[in-house]
Amino acid sequence: MTEAGVDAVPKLGQAHNALFTQVYEAIKRGILSGRFKAGDRLLEERLAEEFGVSRNPIREAFRLLTAEGLVEVINRRGVYIRFMDPRQSREVVEIRAILEGHNARLVARRGDPDLLDRAAGILGQGEAAIARGEVAALRGLNEEFHRTLALAGENEVLQDLLGLLRLRSALLFAKAEPEVQSESWMEHAHILQAILAGNEEAAAGAATAHVLNAGARAERFRDAERVDVTEAPAR
């Protein structure tokens, strides 16, 4: 047995690809969890040490993340988690709202009962977390809820698109206040209720409204930050 618990020793190319994939997925999880936020610098040396790999898998992960629009390379400064300007943020919200609405329609039409049970369980976990005042837990549960509904839509192309858009949305929504996260979470119940009732129109409408509302809340928060900076006394 190897340290990774794999019986067969992988070929060199397979091992390299596995390392690259692990680093890539770990950085994506960091974005979704809020560990990495827009504007954060990603240091090759620090990540290589953390993951116990050479710098090559880190660089390859950076290249793919750059192609996906999640990080950007700033000459002579390094690699940073991408910061979306208002226009880019609006575009992400608009297209995700459309696709989430269509996915909810598909789930209401043909959703796997087991996946819907899983979504209901995740919804309950989030409500319990809110009751305990553990709002920080909602970030991870939010990703689980939306990923589960994407799977239930049974459209792999749509799943891939929604996965990328959730990553970009995570950069937009990363700084949301706890009460905003709670408000957003409660909208999930409306989506799931319509899905379980088999009401395609209501499910699509609730999912679309959920994303648009989240975008509006994020924009209000962004505006408030700008006001705070503008009104801050000079030092």
UniProtKB/TrEMBL annotation:
Name this polypeptide is given: GntR family transcriptional regulator
Gene Ontology MF terms in the entry: DNA binding; DNA-binding transcription factor activity
InterPro entries on file: GntR_C, TF_FadR/GntR_C, Tscrpt_reg_HTH_GntR, WH-like_DNA-bd_sf, WH_DNA-bd_sf
Keywords on record: DNA-binding, Transcription, Transcription regulation
Species: Rhodovulum sulfidophilum
Start and end residues of each HTH gntR-type domain: 17-84
